[in-house]
Every structure is written in C-alpha cells, then in structure tokens.
Write a structure and sequence with these properties.
It contains twelve helices and twelve strands. With about 325 residues, the protein is an alpha/beta fold. It folds into two domains: about 130 residues, no CATH class; about 180 residues, Trna Endonuclease, Chain: A, domain 1 (3-Layer(aba) Sandwich). The strands form four sheets. It has a five-stranded mixed sheet, sandwiched between helices. The protein has a three-stranded antiparallel sheet with strand order 1-2-3. Strand 2 and strand 3 form a beta hairpin. Helix 1 crosses helix 3 and helix 6 packs across helix 11.
Length: about 325
C-alpha cells in the first residue's frame, strides 16, 4: 500500500511533534532517542540515524506501508500500531484526554487516502477504510518474538504462577485476560467455597459477528495436567477432570441477561502448568467425537503469551511483592 508523499509528511510531523507555522501543537515533541523508542513500541526495529527527523519518519512510514496487510485495502498491523502509539490518550498535549484536536489533524491527512481514525470503547485509536467501512485492528499474535521488557515481564509472571493459589490464578490472571480477549459475563462459580456448579470454575460467553452467543465453561487447575497413574504433588491427573468435563457439557447454566438456561458450547481446560500431549490424547480417547470437538486446552505457555501480547498489567499481588520486591518500578 502507498500513501501520498504529502500525507506521509504530515503524519511524520505529528510523530515528531514539530510545531507548524507557529501554531499550537497537539503532539508531544520527540527527539532522535524518543523516535527510536516510538517505533520500538510499535514492535519495529527502526532506529533513527541522525538525519532530519520528519524526513526519516516519512521514509520509515513508507517502508511500513509496504508490508502486506491482513485485510484487503488495509495497511499492515505495524501501521495500525504506529497510529495507536501516536494517538495514545496518555500523550494528550495542549488539550483534554479525548484528543479532539489531534484526531482532527490526523484525519485531515488520512482523508486524502480514504481513511478515518477514531477512538473505540477501549479508548484506543483505530483506522477505518471509508469506502468499505472496514476497521483495521492490529493482531495480537501470541507467537511473535517478545521485546526485552516483555521477556522480563514474562519471567515475573512465571514466578507468580509458580507460587500463586488456584484462586489467584482465576481472579488475578484468567478473568482479566478473558475480559481483554472480548468475553462477556465472566462469572466465577463459587470456587473459593468449593461449591462448584457442575464442574465449572468459570463460565462466560462470546458474541459472534452474526450476533449469536457461544457459551464457555472453564475448569482450572493450578499445576501440570498429565496422564500418569496418580496425582503427584501440584500436578493433576487428566482423569480427575474427565467427569467434571462431562458434567460441564451436559448441564445447563442460567444466563440472567436473557432470562433462560443454556447449554455450554465449549469446555476450556486451563492449567497453570503444562498440559501434556498424553493427557490430551487420553481425554480425547474417553470422549465421543462430538464432545471431543468441544474441548479447548490452555496451558501455562498459552496464558503467558496471551497475557503479554494483550499488554495486561501485572497483578497487584502480595505474592509478586514477596518474590520480586518493588516490581512496579520496572518499565512495563
């Protein structure tokens, strides 16, 4: 995808924060160091080479736009992240947090390319292609390489998962994560008092583009799930949750938002440790074909990767403070 040179130059000046014709600027000033940091935050490796800042940024944007997009007629995910960084509401300058003037200035440039920037309910800035009304959202690929800071954050979360309780895993990690991933009505089914509702620790629902709902039940185990003959230490045997999964899929739940009972469409088995291949195969062999297709697995690596790429804050937990001290001082 290509933008006109004039458009790129205008967006480049916004990223640099240069004052135009002695008018008030609504974008923060970025020196050479902070331009490199800006593009690093957009998950790129561009480093300012000391040349004229607006010219370098314009050329960098041109390179980013050459990357293939995931949607026809739309720029790449990287360009989407650049726009989101530029319009971060915490960077409001000379105006209120809603950044009305900055958004107007950005859209004056983007309209030349038939794009429009807007803030969604999550307070992030997205791009819409005006002719088709398609919205571009940067993908959160959990298998992408992590930055140094993200790797540090991941190590802290590993330490947390090693020492937290099952209740902490549910309340401090899984509920914020599933909420960030777009699930609705996330309800904990009485885990603390052990009065589980038909084998579910959590139930939640997800809306499809067709406006239909899918319902999910979640069975959570803190440690590793394996297919050994017996449970050892913090590890759990997959056979122990076999009956719980059957109950989860066979019993109705009450959704107060629609005032009726519904069946769970899928069962999530979530472990704070590894879910071994043998455990997955054992459970698959015990379930019939229809129920087997309803089972989803999520182990420690899945939890860690999703937590990092979705940029969720570390839990404000006594477990973390005891283990890592004042971890809030780290630059996450």
């Amino acid at each position: 995808m290509e933008f006109k040179t004039r458009t790129l130059n205008q967006i480049a000046k916004m990223i640099c924060g240069d004052i135009k014709d002695n008018l008030k600027s609504y974008f923060i000033y970025r020196s050479s160091f902070y331009l490199t940091e800006f593009f690093a935050d957009a998950e790129t490796e561009f480093t300012h080479d000391g040349s004229t800042r607006p010219k370098w940024v314009s050329e960098t944007l041109s390179e980013i736009l050459k990357e293939p997009g995931n949607i026809d007629d739309m720029p790449s995910d990287t360009f989407c992240r650049v726009i989101q960084n530029l319009m971060d509401q915490s960077d409001a300058f000379n105006e209120s947090k809603d950044r009305t003037n900055a958004l107007l200035e950005l859209n004056t440039a983007l309209s030349r390319e038939n794009f429009e920037a807007f803030y969604a309910e999550d307070n992030k800035c997205y791009l819409k292609y005006i002719p088709t009304q398609k919205v571009l959202k940067a993908s959160t690929n959990p298998h992408r390489p992590f930055s140094v800071i993200e790797a540090q954050k991941r190590e802290i979360l590993i330490g947390y998962l090693d020492k937290c309780s099952e209740d902490d895993l549910i309340e401090e990690i899984l509920i914020p994560l599933f909420r960030q991933l777009g699930f609705h009505k996330i309800s904990v089914a009485g885990h603390k008092d052990k009065s589980l509702e038909y084998g579910k620790d959590i139930w939640m629902k997800l809306i499809l583009p067709t406006q239909h709902w899918l319902y999910f039940g979640i069975q959570v185990k803190k440690g590793k799930l394996d297919a050994a003959g017996m449970t050892k230490g913090s590890n759990s045997n997959i056979s122990e949750i076999h009956n719980q999964v059957l109950m989860m899929l066979g019993h109705e739940i009450f959704d107060p938002e629609i005032g009726k009972k519904v069946l769970v469409d899928h069962a999530f088995i979530v472990a704070g440790g590894e879910i071994t291949k043998a455990a997955k195969n054992w459970l698959g062999g015990k379930l019939d074909t229809s129920k087997r297709s309803q089972i989803l697995f999520m182990d420690r690596d899945d939890i860690l990767n999703q937590f990092i790429v979705n940029n969720l804050p570390l839990p404000d937990s006594a477990v973390l403070k005891r283990t890592f001290g004042n971890f809030k001082d780290l630059s996450f």
